Amino acid sequence: MSYNPPPKGRFEYYSPDGKYLGEWGSGPFAGFRALLDSEYDMVLANQKRIDAMRDDWDPGMGLENRDPFVQPDPGWTKPLIGPIGWAMFDASKPIQVQVDQKVFLEGLFTDAKNAHGAEKGAYMVYSFKLLTLSLVRAVNKAPAANQKTEFVWDLGKDNLGRRTLPTDSTKVVIGTIHTHWDDNGREKPELSRDKDVPSARDNKFVVYALDRKYLHRADPDGVPHDRLARNITDVLSSALRIYGKTF
Ligand SMILES: [Zn+2]
After folding, report:
1. What is the number of other CB atoms lying within 10 angstroms of the CB of residue 226?
2. What is the pTM of this model?
């Protein structure tokens, strides 16, 4: 079995539950990749073994002086894995990140304006099964009279306690995004302290709010970052990095 070198660039690896495993490679970011924890552990164990063998080997040492009891590792002599980064790349699969996030989110925002400020929202969903990271429209479960001030999420939970879509526990909800709009421009330029920030902390995911001027974000540890630049080209990648490194 042989491996082809992966394309150049830095790759980040994520487990089925969205946990950040590690990264490999250098240079500009090339992509997210999905990998089983067990495969990641196996590759790391192999690397440790190879490193240990390198440390033992001294090219200046005469054959006659070598320790006869040092046995070559069968995994190493076979070149089972080739260069370690290639093995990691080979065992993993690319995760497709939704490309039209800006269009999607401006659509959400327009809907909120047309609804005179009723909050609109979307789940940020990571699927190891489909190898996708995407935005999924959500229904605001708050009573109609409250929808201008709150968004109530319908959420499921997997057996690890992670938040998932209510109808599909293989789709991990790594975060949510909702709108803040007031017809008279009186929305507060920040996340609400009584709902948005606790939602991030309690669900251990990333919460974004979008208003006409800013993007706001609360991290899973409950720390709010208000009035960020309104850059919505790729909120999903930032969300996965924050979410994945939380656990
Ligand atoms: Zn809010």
Report:
1. 16
2. 0.86
3-state secondary structure of 180: coil
218 alpha carbon – ligand 1 mean position (Å): 10
Domains for the chain: give ranges and CATH numbers. 10-94 (no CATH), 97-244 (3.40.140)
Question: Tens place of pLDDT for every residue, the chain, 247 residues?
Answer: 555 667 788 899 999 999 999 888 878 989 999 999 999 888 888 777 776 776 665 555 554 444 433 444 443 333 334 467 788 888 999 999 999 999 999 999 999 999 999 999 999 999 999 999 999 999 999 999 999 999 999 999 999 899 999 999 999 999 999 999 999 999 999 999 999 999 999 999 999 999 999 999 999 999 999 999 999 999 999 999 999 998 7
The answer to whether the beta carbons of residues 133 and 32 sit under 8 Å apart is yes
Q: Check: CB of residue 239 under 8 Å from CB of residue 9.
A: no
Report CA(192)–ligand 1 centroid distance (Å). Answer: 5
Separation of CA 179 and ligand 1 centre (Å): 7
